[in-house]
Request: fold
Amino acid sequence: MSVRVLVVDDDALVRAGLTLMLDGAGDVVVVGEAGDGADVAPALDAHPTDVVLMDLRMPRVNGIDATRRVRARAQPPEMIVLTTFDTDENVLRALRAGASGFLLKDAPPAEIVRAVRRVAAGEPMLSPAITRRLMDRVATEAGAHERARAVLAALSVREREVAVAVGQGKTNAEIAAGLHVSVATVKAHITRILTKLGLGNRTQIALLAHDAGLI
Reply:
């Protein structure tokens, strides 16, 4: 089945370009567009969506707030923030709001399509440069280390192992091979981690593992 995408950007030309590019991928279809974060909820109500490509800066409701609202919905779609602004603060705020990916608008088309496919399959997508900077940033936040370790104390030993592997950017298949369990077991562990810790997606698990100094 095709991955259903909603494109959110206040620039009509950007929306048109992304739609043309994604529709040409074969297994991706743009089901709708929105020009502001305030218009996302009605668009999602009208169009079943797997992945939202979200602009960061919009006139009424910005991409961070819109991402947070979408992730609070029942069975929310995955979120990729796609922007021209890649400051550390923007990256961190987007991921903490529930985004599964953060890409620059000048990323090659193939990278954007790959990101859509990956997050639709439940895998986070960050460029290596952004990941490195993010790790450095969370490591310096005051009190983050102690708070994260206290939260992770609720996990079992195996669940912590899975959380660390997620933080290392491993896929479910790679985690399963490393722990000598099935992919289904890994998925079950991740589901339990999300439920126990009140998190929205595996990217937030990775952030927590980095905060705790386990990566």
Q: What stands out?
A: The mean pLDDT is 85.
